[in-house]
């Protein structure tokens, strides 16, 4: 069970956002060696813009500067909404993999009166392994852990893959992003 609270100011307070999220996860032990964890998140968001701090191209006269009023229609109320996410993780002592889907309902975050700015759904796939390295006589020499993370949101793709190597308390690794 978790609670995530965030407040953000961008552009010297021109855009502000507040989020509060409730999180819940449950682990189900399928066997002694294999488990699954299910998680869900429900959040409430509020975003607003201080229109007095913005300037638009239609406000500018080429010779006299900022003398006009913009034709942009400000939204006098904040954009508010509810956002849902869920995920599942399956794992054993050596292997793990999962999927998470954020913004299931694609909430509208538009800050203009006639706008439509849906937050696109994001899908994340991840997986990996922890493979022990044994020396002569079965002596533990550490482990190597190959991993990947793939994300897709609104046609944009991100693929990270790499590995960690562990020996005692020393951990090192290398990751590539595409």
What does the model show?
This protein has 178 residues and is mainly beta. The protein has strands spanning 2-10, 15-29, 34-49, 60-61, 65-66, 79-92, 95-102, 122-129, 131-134, 140-153, 156-167, 170-177. The strands form two sheets. Strands 1, 2, 3, 6, 7, 8, 9, 10, 11 and 12 form a ten-stranded antiparallel sheet that branches. Strands 4-5 form a two-stranded antiparallel sheet.
Fill in the keyword field for this structure:
178 residues; mainly beta; two-stranded antiparallel ribbon; 63% strand
Strand-residue proportion: over 45%
Q: Please provide the count of β strands.
A: 12
Distance between the termini: 34 Å
Q: Biggest β-sheet, characterized? A: 10 strands, antiparallel
Low-confidence stretches: none
In N-to-C order, the SSE pattern is EEEEEEEEEEEE
| Share of residues in helices | under 10%
Rounded average pLDDT = 91
* Structure classification: mainly beta
Estimated radius of gyration:
24 Å
Shape: elongated
